[in-house]
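Can't paste images in this forum, so I'm doing it all in text. The chain is below; anyone willing to post the predicted structure tokens underneath?
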Amino acid sequence: MNRLLTIVGDAWRQFERLWLGPVDARVYAIIRIAFAVVALINVIDLWPHRLAFFSGEGMTGHPAEQSGLSVFRQVESPAGVTVIFLVAAASAVWLGIGVMARPAAVLLWLWQMSYTSQGYPLVHGWDILLRIEALILLISPLGPSIPQWLAQVNGKPGAIRRSDGMASRHGLVLLQIQLAVVYWQTVWLKVLDAYWRNGEVISYFMMSTYARFPSAQWAHWDLASALLSHLTLLVEVAIPLLLWNRRTRMLGFFLGIGLHGSIVLVSHILLFSLTVLVPYFAFLDGRDLERWSGRLRRRRILEG
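Text version of the structure:
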């Protein structure tokens, strides 16, 4: 019996350390700001299509809705839809600043649920990922506000109290798992595709309308296409593993930013890369932030 209690106690302590252990709350603030910026860009991207896809007078129409939580079921007028978009944009701004952050997080989660239910013809993979990130933020600590952070940096009243400087790590773990699922599920689906296996997919993509600079020359660049296709698969498998290991974390950041930066440069798929990069910040910890803060302070001293 004592042996069993010891095993259960050890298992609980491991669970508590992994999911509920203390982390620097500033990491949550960085994630909150990054998500808010991407959410605001997404609202701006959808703005020109708001009446066509979200009002009762649009091309989808409310009778054609799919099931799901959506405020657009109660608001059909063009003016009402415009107000919803403005509230979503304002919520992203408030969430990023950190003022009234929890109500703003609730509104953004409701916005994500609503537009992905109503505007399903224009929903992409990153919209669903944004919805998941919104839910995780909703149940996570949100970290200090930007005014609190600046007050701490400048040593002014209103700075973060020591008791407020730590938070439970459960939200970070969920985001880390989500990023790994995104990459590894993507790789699993890609290796089942003949064009990814034979290395032709990059050539086809670079000749498509999704490419920023489409060129028929890619039809003759078989080796380059094969190398880039297979290298992409290797990088997507490796990134979560590299990020989880402190010694290789910066390499994981470098490969991830390089991968998605390249996607932004050669394609019209900006929001996909921005959305995927948000969970990267969940792999940071207080030591990373202190190291960067120390470098910034030393630079200021040298420049001053």
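The first strand starts at residue 22 and ends at 24. Residues 125 and 143 are 27 Å apart (CA to CA).
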